Each structure stands twice: as structure tokens, then as C-alpha cells.
Amino acid sequence: MNPIAASELIINNRGAVYHVNCRPEEIANTIITVGDPDRVSEVSKHFDSIEYKNQHREFVTHTGYIGKKRLSVTSTGIGPDNIDIVLNELDALVNIDFETRTIKENLTTLNIIRVGTSGSLQKEIPVDSFVASTHGLGLDNLLHFYRHSGNEEEKQLQQAFVTHTQMNTITTPYITGASASLIKEFVKDFHQGITVTCPGFYGPQGRVLRLGLAQPNLIDSLTSFTFGNHRISNFEMETSAIYGLGKILGHHCLSLSAIVANRISKEFSKDGNAAVENLIIKTLEIVEKTAY
Fold first, then answer.
1. Which of 10, 36, 72, 93 is the one with CA 20 to 30 A from 223?
2. Selection from 150, 152, 144, 153 nearest residue 171 by Cα
3. Considering only CA atoms, which of 70, 1, 79 is closest in space to residue 30?
4. Cα(147)–Cα(145) distance, integer angstroms
5. Residue 243 CB partners (closer than 8 Å, separation 6+)
């Protein structure tokens, strides 16, 4: 096997992968991702001990322990493009030998759990509640740069969504399911549904300031979509990329969201920070008790 070139896998002078700025021993196999770099410390303040603190640009990583559970928390910044960086580099840290620059014979599966904020697309999913995403449905184009294929249910969901929304006039949506082994732990106190990932905050999420929209009925078409027992619960800017890349790379991924806005009732959380803190606490309690 030919070594991966220095231009393709960038390793800095201290032997750390370039953007995330971690060495292989500095991350755990269970990783919580957050968008906001400042939120990393809001997670790690609950750790019993911290081994490593690393930062480069918006990518901050803390690794430590809660009891006997070793965890990392990493900030991704906003959007699918940053997820492309973080997921590939986290995978490289465990599945590429940095000395030989070759893919390891025995691959490691990571457990990657996004803890973030989101907007609800259903009136009965109120602000300050939690959503565990059964699927990530991408309106971005990230996964189209990789070879991938969905299972039969995912293909049917994708086709039904395109037929319902006519979204293929703007982009080609893709959809990937959550890790079954992770989402089964997040049932009590969590709404579940399809999470739509958008490549922007304003037009791609149906917000109108000064610019008109190419698809002015976007919110209604998302809210009204159903397929069997599936419906769209919320939207944000990272889940589909995490689910899609995670599946291709062989990792277990789950996205958890604190609802800070309800786009149907037009409400916004009066204390979004408290909602996120409650989600962090609940997530860590569940993760600490599970076997993975």
C-alpha cells in the first residue's frame, strides 16, 4: 500500500493532524461534537478529569474522563464543510498510522454524538425540548463528493422527499440513518424525527430578510412531509454530513438537538443556553452509563 502523501494528510510538527490539532493518543473512542468552540468547556466542565486540551482555529478538543468513561469533546464550527474536515481527521487519528502514512489493517469504530441547537418544524415539538435524529437529510452537496449508497428505506425516503418538495430543482438531497446502537439509548425525554441539514442559515432555512427565496414554500413543504411513520422534526446545519460521512467511514453517529426556535409557532427560547446545558447533562448521564 502506497503511503498517503503529505499534501493529502497534513501532520504538523508535533505529530498532530492539521485542523483538529490532536495526536492519536489525544482523542477517545467516544466523541461529542459541538458547533461552538466555547461550548467545549461547557461540556468538559462536567468531566472528572481532563487529560488534553488542544486548539487550532475554531477546532477545540478536550479529552478526559467521567468516572471510568474516557470521552473527547470537539468543536466543529458551523456547516457541512467543517464536518468534512472534522470527521475525516477524527477517522485518520484512529485508522491511519501516522508513522507509515498507511491505513491500518484493523480499523477502529468511533462513537460520535453531536450535541447542538436546532429549529423545530413541528408545532408540537416546542422550544427547550430535545430531538434525537432518526435520519439526516442533506440539502447540502457534501456527500456527493464521495462514493456512497443508501439502503432501500433511505432510497425510498429520498425519492418520496424529492417528489413532495421538488427540492431537486435546487439540489439533490441525500439521506442517511442514525446509528441504531446509539439512538436506542435516547428515547425517554427525546422527540425523534428526520433532521434536515441546510447549507446556510437564512435562505436555505426559509428566512427572508432582503432577498427573495427560490423556494418560498420551503417551510411548509418540510413540515408537511411524511413517509410511513417518518416525518421531519427539525433542521440545522451539520447532521446529514455527520451521518453520511460516519456511515461511509464505519462509525456510529447520532445527532441530538436542543430546540431553540419553533418555526411554526414563531417562538424562540427565552434561555437557549439553559436548554443546551440541560441537553449536555442528559447526554453525559446516558453516555457514562452505556457500554460503548
1. 36
2. 144
3. 70
4. 7
5. 133, 135, 136, 176, 177, 178, 253, 255
Over the stretch 211-259, which tens digit does the pLDDT of each residue have? 999 999 999 999 999 999 999 999 999 999 999 999 999 999 999 999 9
* pLDDT (0 to 100) of residue 260: 97
CB atoms under 10 Å from CB of 67, counted, come to 9
In this structure, what DSSP letter does residue 72 have?
E
Return the CATH number of 24-289, one of 3.40.1580.10, 2.30.42.10, 3.40.190.10, 3.40.50.1580: 3.40.50.1580
Please list the alpha-helical segments (H only) found in the chain. Answer: 39-44, 80-95, 152-165, 180-183, 218-223, 239-249, 272-289
Identity of the residue numbered 47: F
Question: Per-residue pLDDT for 167 more than 90?
Answer: no
Backbone dihedral region of 264: left (phi > 0), alpha (psi from -120 to 50 degrees) or beta?
alpha
- The phi and psi torsions of 281 (rounded to 5 degrees) equal -60, -45
Grid cell 436555505 is found at 204
Residues forming beta bridges with residue 53, ordered by sequence position = 62
- C-alpha to C-alpha distance for 191 and 279, rounded to whole angstroms: 13
What are the cell numbers at 33? 461534537
The C-alpha cell that represents 42 in the structure block: 461547557
Q: Who contacts 262 (Cβ-Cβ below 8 Å, separation ≥6)? A: 119, 120, 123, 125, 126, 127, 268
Residues shown for the chain: 292
Domain ranges of the chain: 24-289
